Amino acid sequence: MNLATIDIGTNTTLLLVASVVGPKVEVLAERAEITRLGRGIGSAGTAGALAPEAIDRTLAVLRDYAAVARRHGARVAAVGTEALRRAANASAFLVPAAEILGGDVEVIDGQREAALTFRAVLASFANIAADELVVVDIGGGSTEIVLARGGQIGFRVSLPLGSVRLTEAHVRHDPPAPAERAAIEAAIDAAIGPVPFPRTPVPLVGVAGTVTSLAAMALELASYDPARVHGYRLSRADLGRQVARLGGATQAERERMVGLDPRRADVIFAGALILDRIAAAAGIADVLVSDHGIRWGLLHELAEASPDGIGA
Asked: pTM for the whole thing?
């Protein structure tokens, strides 16, 4: 059974195509394109609307992904997250997207987004799932936090924090001014304040492009290698060094940093601050990095529902 899962986010659109036979998952293709579907969605004059160029850009990527899925004879399932939850004109994207993919894009709420992320983490890191665990998924438009024990979710929340969202809301200078950093940190701290992090440090798994980019930077990867990034432990010290580098650099300088996709250079600082403030609030020593996000959780969900899939 071949499956193709697509995660359409505020900043990035991702594809996973895999063959699933019983418990065995073989990756056939993976793609990640920074499409910025939610660019400017909260800016003055465009609040609540997807820009036509962002729609066109993302649809073009979906055409490519659909072709990849067809080549592998894969069943396609796609989900959309924060940008599509917020956009008043989401149908301008969803209708042609359904035609391209041969089925509707499921626009999921923050609770389901967190659950899919957690499902992917459980599959990746079963050795730590039996104990207490914190999972953080930092996207372009929202951040999901899951607190779990014994493989079961005890608390989950979707917060209005994202690398694109916070950058557009607070950053006007290059590099960001101290007051802009302070405003971002204040917004993060206010949002995560009610989260009941465990009183003693427990493993924290970080998911999605901000976290994997910070790991690739710490590893100084000239080209992204998911095998090296997935499972990497990003120490608080290394995270702090990356935050300091990013905060003191211009966008042009960030675009030249080894390990960072230049297309993330304008928003990575805000994303790094989200991870840094959450890590501080949770009191952890390092972040366990996961390259397997929502698309992987959706894959496991579909496979487990099939008589030929993971639960077979």
From this structure: 0.89
**The CATH classification of domain 121-290, taken from the options 3.10.50.30, 3.30.420.150, 3.90.650.10, 3.40.50.720:** 3.30.420.150
Please spell the DSSP secondary structure of 88-122, one letter per residue.
TTTHHHHHHHHHHHTS-EEE--HHHHHHHHHHHHH
Query: What is each CA distance from 255 to 29, 34, 240, 260, in whole angstroms?
Result: 27, 14, 19, 7
> For residue range 277-306, what is the model confidence (pLDDT) as tens digits?
999 999 999 999 999 999 999 999 999 887
8 A C-beta contact, residue 18 and residue 2: yes
Task: Delimit the domains of the chain by residue range.
Answer: 2-110+294-304, 121-290
Query: What's the CA gap between 126 and 148, in Å, rounded?
Result: 13
Q: Where are the alpha helices (DSSP H) in the chain?
A: 52-71, 82-86, 91-101, 110-124, 163-170, 178-192, 209-219, 226-229, 236-247, 251-255, 268-282, 294-304
Q: Given a cut of 70, is residue 272 above it in pLDDT?
A: yes
Question: Does 2-110+294-304 match 121-290 in CATH topology?
Answer: yes
Q: Cβ neighbours of residue 215 under 8 Å, at least 6 residues apart? A: 229, 232, 234, 289
Which is nearest to 28 in space by CA: 63, 1, 8?
1
Domain 2-110+294-304 CATH assignment equals 3.50.50.60: no
Tens of pLDDT, residues 167-214 = 999 999 999 999 999 999 999 999 999 999 999 999 999 999 999 999
pLDDT in tens, 40-70: 776 544 558 899 999 999 999 999 999 999 9
* Total H helices, total E strands in the chain: 12, 11
Report the sign of the C-alpha dihedral through residues 10, 14, 20, 23, in that order: negative
Coil, strand or helix: which one is 264?
helix
Kindly tell me if the per-residue pLDDT of 117 is higher than 70: yes
Is 137 in contact with 113 (CB distance < 8 Å)?
yes
